[in-house]
Design brief:
This protein is an alpha/beta fold and 176 residues long. The chain has one domain: Rossmann fold (3-Layer(aba) Sandwich). The protein is 24% helix and 35% strand. The protein has four helices and nine strands. Strands 5-6-4-3-7-8-9 form a seven-stranded mixed beta sheet, sandwiched between helices. It starts with 12 loop residues before the first strand and ends with a strand.
């Protein structure tokens, strides 16, 4: 990123032992409550991919929705929610993935991404890369292309980026 984004971390709090002991949850709600920080994050992602053709922006449940929807709006692209299993009311494509503390399933509507679409995947935190790599597999399984992946924050010690090789990946800030 061209702009200095380190100040965004002032608006992220670490919550120890959530959702289980030994896990530190990176809470972005203070950033969302600060209009300048929220606007900056959305604009930084949209600006980074401004020269990249994007038809759809996928937001990963739940905090990825908050970032992806305004990014899609800024880019003139469709917004597609990627949800946990059982939350979408129509025919879905599904991928199972590993979390740093278990497994889960990610789903999108089968018509949410069409063959040939160029898709930007957005989430709040890149940790182990399990959720993001599941989203990549969903997009590719439906015949679309991943235009890139964008995260508010990356936890580099968990090496999630290594699961996304071959794709453009940006993170606005690096967490500890």
């Amino acid at each position: 990123m061209v702009a200095d984004t380190a100040w965004l971390m002032e608006h992220v709090r670490s919550v120890p032992d959530f959702p289980r002991p030994g896990v530190s949850f990176m809470d972005i709600t203070p950033l969302l409550a600060e209009p300048d920080a929220f606007r900056f994050a959305v604009d930084a992602i949209a600006d980074h991919f401004a020269g990249t053709p994007v038809d759809r922006v996928i937001g990963i449940e739940a905090r990825g929705f908050i970032l992806a929807a305004p990014v899609a709006y800024r880019m003139g692209a469709a917004f597609v929610p990627a949800r946990k299993a059982g939350k979408l009311p129509w025919a879905v494509a599904r991928e199972e993935y590993d979390l740093e503390y278990g497994t889960d399933k990610l789903e999108i509507h089968r018509d949410g991404v069409l063959p040939g679409d160029r898709v930007l995947i957005v989430d709040d935190v890149l940790a182990t890369g399990g959720t993001a790599s599941a989203a990549v597999r969903l997009v590719q399984g439906l015949g679309a292309t991943v235009a890139g992946l964008a995260f508010l924050m990356e936890l580099p010690f968990l090496e999630g980026r290594s699961r996304l090789l071959g794709h453009e990946v940006i993170a606005l800030v690096q967490g500890a």
